[in-house]
Amino acid sequence: MDSLKLLVHPVRLRIVHALSGGRALTTAELSSRMHDVSKATVYRHVGRLADAGVLEVAAEQRVHGAVERHYRLRRERAVIGDEAVSSVSKEEHRRVFAAAMAILIAEFGAYLDRDASDPVADSVGYRQHALWLDGEELAALIAELRAAIVPRLGNEPVPGRAQYLLSPILFPIEEEIR
What we know:
Elements: H1 3-7, H2 10-19, E1 24-26, H3 27-33, H4 39-51, E2 55-63, E3 66-73, H5 82-86, H6 90-113, H7 135-149
Antiparallel strand pairs: 1-3, 2-3
Helix pairs in contact: 2-6, 3-4
Domain HTH arsR-type: 2-85
GO molecular function: DNA-binding transcription factor activity
Protein name: Helix-turn-helix domain-containing protein
């Protein structure tokens, strides 16, 4: 299965999100974070991600006669490359975008379902801005966003930190003025 088909799946991408930042969790711990997904489904998708090399076993321990595995994300394997994206049809782009939006909706719903969720206090945002940019300005904007985001991708979960989902979406809404 190519990286695009593997990762653009609502359950698998939520597993990737949960394990980001160097976390190692068991399948049971992952399942407890996804109340809306059955345990069997979480186990199946953890298996697929592990088989594909996106997850690795960080530790194993015996618990009541069974082996409990702690999984860790291999960030370098949890990437959808430009080659995979450039090789898909427009119809496939529609399906991938719809899947990405479904994942956002599921993650946001899970957030709102938490007793302690407070969109104002948690600085939740879902704004849209229409920008007029030429090619140079677009490249600069993308570079600035990457410069702000990339250094924080390696942040680990420590006391005082919460995990946030940032999902930039960028596409032209009008054709270039000539």
